[in-house]
Design a protein that fits this description.
It is a single chain. The protein contains 8 helices and 9 strands. With 250 residues, the protein is α+β, with helices and mostly antiparallel strands. The relative contact order is 0.11. The strands form 2 sheets. The chain has a 6-stranded mixed beta sheet with strand order 1-2-3-4-5-6. A 3-stranded antiparallel beta sheet has the order 7-8-9.
Length: 250
């Protein structure tokens, strides 16, 4: 194959690797897109829920950017861009779908910004839920949340050491509170045992627990450490170990 053919083939493969947005906005000043992965799209109710949220997010960013451009056109020498992806992290018991919602934005600063949040979808109920049904109690500052926080901090410290990064400072540790809405976005981790979850993963965006250059962090809490706090449903869905390939995602 000649050089031109090699370049054309590489370009074709790169283009094919880019998923087509399920919703997009493109103006002279703003580009925004929403992408659902194949597993999300396979569930019509889940797909509709995520797409509605994604559209509202994209429209709001366009409106905010239009307002900002009227006040300061010089900020838009390059178009502002936004992207939101809904990516399936795990499907447990064929019922509970954990999704990572990854946001990217560039608004003319020194570098783009990214952030992550999570969604737990109950296919049987057809709605978003929290992890509360899996635990006997999740009260703020209660024993379950304190145990989770302790294990989250231990996991983050281990990952920091593995990366050769600076340790967690006091303000970062303080910001990780033993409260379900303050401890960090949580997902059900995949497992080596089919249909089970190996524990909880907590997702931290750049700047949340380290510098921008360090990127995102995931803290893993094995289900065995949560066992004293599990409801019968929690006991039923947890099991197995965290797959090696999931650890390597860090």
């Amino acid at each position: 194959m000649g050089l031109a053919g090699t370049i054309a083939c590489a370009a074709t493969l790169a283009f094919a690797a880019e998923p087509k947005p399920d919703f997009s906005i493109k103006t002279k000043w703003v580009e925004a897109s929403v992408i659902l992965d194949a597993q999300v799209k396979a569930d019509p109710m889940l797909a509709a829920n995520c797409l509605a949220e994604g559209k509202a997010w994209a429209e709001k960013n366009r409106a905010d950017a239009d307002k900002e451009r009227k006040q300061d056109p010089d900020l838009f020498r390059n178009p502002w861009s936004y992207e939101r992806k809904y990516e399936t992290r795990s499907v447990v018991d064929g019922r509970y779908v954990s999704i990572v919602r990854a946001d990217y934005e560039y608004t003319g600063g020194a570098h783009p910004n990214s952030s992550s949040d999570t969604i737990l979808w109950d296919k049987s109920a057809g709605k978003r839920i929290s992890i509360r049904p899996f635990f006997t109690e999740t009260a703020d500052n209660g024993p379950a949340m304190k145990a989770m926080r302790q294990d989250v901090i231990a996991s983050l410290k281990a990952e920091k050491k593995k990366r050769g990064a600076e340790g967690l400072d006091a303000s970062t540790i303080e910001a990780i509170e033993p409260k379900l809405l303050k401890i960090g976005p949580v997902s059900l981790a995949p497992s080596t045992e089919q249909g089970k979850s190996s524990g909880l993963t907590f997702h931290y965006s750049p700047y949340a627990v380290g510098s921008y250059a360090e990127g995102e962090y995931m803290a893993f809490v094995p289900w065995e450490k949560l066992k004293p706090f599990l409801t019968p449903e929690g006991i039923r869905i947890f099991g197995g170990a965290r797959p090696k390939e999931d650890e390597d995602r860090q």
